Amino acid sequence: MIDEGTVVSIFLVVLFLFTCPLIIVGFVWVMRKWMKHRREKQAFQRVIQSGIRSIDQMDGHQFEYFLVQLLKALGYRSVKGTKRSNDFGADLVMEKEKKKIVVQAKRYGYKQRVGIQAIQQVFAAIPFYQAQEAWVVTNSFYTASACKLAQACGVHLLDRWRLQQFIVNVNPEMTAQKVYENVEPARRNCPLCGSPLVVRSHQENTRRFFGCSSFPNCRHTEPLNAS
């Protein structure tokens, strides 16, 4: 006959063999939830630190200005904007240690993708400015064809996620929020009456927008990032 102690031992072994996988599965589930929460927290912190939401509200001129400040913080010299009416494919031309880089800056809507035209334009700017590198920087993302062309041409791409990480690593003194709040956007005229548009702010928040200077005769408004 099997004594009582043996029965208890067998029961404990069976119980352990039954519950051990459940414990492991539960532990793995908890760890995955914790890691997901940690990644989400880090992503949220990156969004806040980078100021990408302020960039989303900028117009193209403000975005270019911010990139200039960002690159100056990295030690680039002779960073200058090109003539907007005749830029030959480059929005910015930068120099550092005798190496020249041309940059296309694309401040787009979040769901709008940068296509191959931006790659073609900045690649064509390389010989004109006698540059050694070409970059395209956007607050959005690129189409698959744009990524393939950039890889073939050796054009460096910074998309939304890479731009955020780039900003966090550089940590410029002139933040995106400061640029958005203090740098005037490019001048525009009202599409309805032709009067100059002026920058206004909502009373309940800091969001800025364009309003017609002939208000109240003309009540046209549009966001800064409309261009």
UniProtKB/TrEMBL annotation:
Keywords recorded for this protein, A-Z: Endonuclease, Hydrolase, Membrane, Nuclease, Transmembrane, Transmembrane helix
Domain Restriction endonuclease type IV Mrr: 55-166
A cellular component term, taken from the record's GO annotations: chromosome
Residues annotated as transmembrane: 6-31
Annotated GO biological process: DNA restriction-modification system; DNA topological change
Pfam (any one): Zn_ribbon_Top1
Keyword Transmembrane helix: yes
The keyword Nuclease belongs to this UniProt entry's keyword annotation: yes
Residues covered by the DNA topoisomerase type IA zn finger domain: 188-226
Molecular function GO terms recorded: DNA binding; DNA topoisomerase activity; restriction endodeoxyribonuclease activity
InterPro entries registered for this protein in UniProt: Restrct_endonuc-II-like (IPR011335), Restrct_endonuc_IV_Mrr (IPR007560), Topo_IA_Znf (IPR013498), tRNA_endonuc-like_dom_sf (IPR011856), Type_IV_Methyl-Rstrct_Enzyme (IPR052906)
PANTHER family reported in the protein's UniProt record: MRR RESTRICTION SYSTEM PROTEIN, SLL1429 PROTEIN
Name assigned to this protein: Restriction endonuclease
Organism of origin: Salicibibacter halophilus
